[in-house]
Amino acid sequence: MVNTERRKRVMQRSIKLGHCVCDPKQPCPCPVFKEQDVCLCAGEHLESPDAPVKLTELVEKAGCASKIDQAFLKKVLGDVPVPEDPRVLVGVPAGDDAGIYDLGQGRCLVQTVDVFTPSVDDPYVFGQIAAANSVSDVYAMGGRPLTALSVIGFPVRKIPDRALSDILQGGIDKMKEAGVSVIGGHSINDQEIKAGFAVTGVIEKEKIITNSHAAVGDALILTKPLGTGIISFASQIGRAPAASIQAAIRSMTTLNKQAAELMIEASAHAATDVTGFSLMGHLAEMASRSAVDVEITWDKLPWIEGVLECAANGILPGGIERNKESCGQAVVAGTGVSETMADICFDPQTSGGLLIAVAPEKADGLIDKLHAADQAFASVIGYVKSKGTGRILLETDHSRTMPEPVSNACCSGTATSKEPNAAEPQPADACCCADMVSTGATDISQVRQIEANFTNFLASAGRPGGLDAVTKQALNIALSVATRCKPCLKIHIEKARQKGFTEEEIDEAAWMAIAFSGSPAMMFYKENKV
């Protein structure tokens, strides 16, 4: 039951201030109150929706692609003074996967934190991936994780409450698999979902593995396939084959625990885990800090199924360009390495594998043990060539080629639709962008389909999203005046009145357009407002 006295008292205060007291960017009464008769400032709550939710539709950049790019981060951190403490063995200046603090008597503390947006639609699976990704940084240093604190951002009451508990449960279950106790956490009400963990572990001082001791001649081993960023992006736009999505999920939810244990057993010289900065970004960091140059054979890189086909059809996320901007200067592509072949090596990974530098005589044995431990994609991808400045020579032995682009790939029958009411994928000859010329004349049914598609587009553009319904309605009035569309103005004024707009609010929206469009718009509005 609504507490009318409290609502009245709080709203009077907000109206007097001219700002909603729980969201100063909003006026009072706010759109939520106008549309749903709920005053959040007075402690009232919206009903939590119960419809199924697809998490990747709620974020701009999926997974580790949501992280700040490497070059910008280095620039900012370069201006931040770092307190000196001799007990900090690996800290901010090292740019490694985790920090290491000397506890004395040969034991050290390992600490890391990792948070990102969903790379999959299922909340429980997202929680698993967030945990596997967060704990991986401790594994990459050769440490044993012990405890974790969850960190989560969640749009309260905007998606089902159950999604939050499923994310947390997925993370707790994956941490349990890793032998890690989740002992608490922190949450914030955020418009974009984010989740991760702060992880604490231990390590023996003489067994610390950093990213800065790769030696000339070392074999470079990658333990998981690449391409999670490409598949996540393809899924966001409805272009990822179902088998590729499942393969990416299997990879992202797999812990690097066994790989780390085998890496330690093989006395690895250096290691890092491959995440948002891409294979090239993390390898460039390892090479630079180890003062070596390395050579990678593109044909030896393991890929999630469907990645090369996506790349051939131009399905590449923007994170690739950001990573190229950050570390592309370190990469030299050899003869026969096409731009696309090089580009996909900059794909931002989520919960990727370990990149391990190990003595060449131990490489085959380590690969055999990784394969026996169900790390089927583990591969030797290259070698440390010489002392140097951190260059990566990307070569090809021509044993693998990129697939040919698929004609009319935008409507490929293998893609998965992201539209909730979409029909089954259509064959290429039914594609909306197929050739519209039929026997020299335009097919009227295709013209009608275009009209129907445009109508659907208008309806979609008018739905609340980043802008609420009231704001969009005010924009519709303003744009109708600015473009002097008489039917549009009549329709949108009527809709505004149905939504509870006052005449003053309608006039204010119109005068925003008049301020930009001048006297002709003013005369049009005065003549046509009914």
In short:
This protein is α+β, with helices and mostly antiparallel strands and 530 residues long. The protein is built from 18 helices and 15 strands. The chain folds into three domains: 4-46, no CATH class; 57-395, PurM-like C-terminal domain (Phosphoribosyl-aminoimidazole Synthetase, Chain A, domain 2, Alpha-Beta Complex); 469-528, AhpD-like (Up-down Bundle).
> Which shape, going by the Cα principal axes?
globular
Structural class: alpha+beta
User: Any idea how many domains?
Assistant: 3
Q: How many helix segments? A: 18
Helical content band? 25-40%
Query: What is the total tally of β strands?
Result: 15
Q: What is the alpha-carbon Rg in Å?
A: 28 Å
**CATH-derived topology of the largest domain:** Phosphoribosyl-aminoimidazole Synthetase, Chain A, domain 2
Amino- and carboxy-terminal Cα gap: 39 Å
Tell me the name of the CATH homologous superfamily of the largest domain: PurM-like C-terminal domain
Poorly predicted regions are 408-442
CATH class of the largest domain: Alpha Beta
Percent strand equals: 15-25%
Give the strand order, joined by hyphens, for the main sheet.
8-11-7-12-9-13-10
The largest pleated sheet is described as: 7 strands, mixed
Under the CATH scheme, the architecture of the largest domain is Alpha-Beta Complex
Mean pLDDT metric: 84
Question: Which tags fit this structure?
Answer:
530 residues; alpha+beta; Phosphoribosyl-aminoimidazole Synthetase, Chain A, domain 2; AhpD-like; 3 domains; 18 helices; globular
